[in-house]
Amino acid sequence: MSVKLKQLLVVMSVITISGISTAATVNYKIDPTHTATVFSWNHLGFSTPSANFRDIQGTIAVDNDHPEKSSVNVNIPVKSINTNVAIFDTKLQQSEWFNSAKFPVITFKSTKVETTDNKNFKILGQLTIKGITKPVVLTAVLNQQVQHPMLKVPAIGFNASTQIKRSDFDIAGYAPAVSDEIDIQITTEAIAVK
Q1: What residues does each domain of the chain span?
Q2: Where in the sequence is the signal peptide annotated (predicted)?
Q3: What are residue 132's DSSP bridge partners?
């Protein structure tokens, strides 16, 4: 066998292997109309109000054969906050709270994905709020990963939860009367990128 033929076979093998590994990962785009990030807090021990963000954007890369290679990247516009109290929504944009004029976007970028059964996941990542980045772990459950019955393309859905402290992100006003701990519940649908 000639040297050139051997080199050609090696190149073809590399291309084939690359194609297989690339095909194993499916990239999904988060559907903001079917995605919600709801957060709640304790108010003076009397109630547990909640609020949510809208227009959440991001991507989920899923490798079913090697879940540890999967990743999540999310952008949340601060101005999309909805507490159901208009004056409070406005107040939360101010500098002592989220300071949306200077820090308009909250981001989450995964650094590691762990699973034992391909249904339940720990998604470790970096959460950035108000320019401050802290590690966060999302406890996630895969709802389903099938062809979307209406759109006829691959789709995926997750629920996830975590807890953070407001004080970690310089948003600690009125603590401890208003709890420092914030519980976060996330649900998302994402559609495969063509």
Answers
A1: 26-192
A2: 1-23
A3: 129
Please state which CATH class domain 26-192 belongs to.
mainly beta
pLDDT (tens digit per residue) in 140-159: 999 999 999 999 999 999 99
Contact 91, 97 (CB under 8 A): yes
pTM here? 0.85
Cα–Cα distance, 96 to 71 (Å, whole number): 32
Task: Measure the CA–CA gap between 127 and 74, rounded to whole angstroms.
Answer: 9
C-alpha pair distances (Å), 88 with each of 62, 93, 126, 140: 38, 9, 27, 30
Q: From CA 92, how far away is CA 104, in angstroms rounded? A: 12
What's residue 5's pLDDT? 38
Give φ, ψ of 156 to 5 degrees: -145, 150
Q: How far apart are CA 141 and CA 168, in angstroms?
A: 26
Q: How far apart (Å, rounded) are the C-alpha atoms in residues 141 and 166?
A: 25
Give one DSSP letter per residue of 84-142, joined into a string: S-HHHHHHHTSTTTT-TTT--EEEEEEEEEEESSSSEEEEEEEEEETTEEEEEEEEEEE
